[in-house]
Design brief:
145 residues, alpha+beta, 4-stranded antiparallel beta sheet, two-stranded antiparallel ribbon, 4 helices
Length: 145
Amino acid sequence: MRTKVFRAVGGLTAAAFLTVAWGCASTVNRRIRADQEAFDAYPPEVQEQIRAGTVGPGFTEEMVRMALGDPARVRTRVTGEQTEEVWIYATRRPGFSVGMGVGTGGGRAGVGTGAGVHTGGRREESARVIFRDGVVHSVETDRGD
């Protein structure tokens, strides 16, 4: 009996992970389909980058939104005579929790366990896309080095 419970919990955990992973992977495709006409007009190398979820210098705001989605925050930075718009992207680190409870009463005892996977963990900055004059000037990423 105990083995069946653990298999069920493990199966549900794997299913939840795959659902989240599939949702993330298909987001770029949904954004492309939402503006297919614009995507089809881009050069093949830009289409390839968008499909891969990457951006580079010369990309427009529309291209960046298609590849990465909406930024978590947008800031304006003034340096000398240059004004830059900085799009900040952040990821939520997944979390995993396990719980166990024990109860007694009326001459009986019970034990319960549970496991959960969530995507509402701590937000960590993953990239900054810097625009000058409406196009990407540079991209800064945190590679975890």
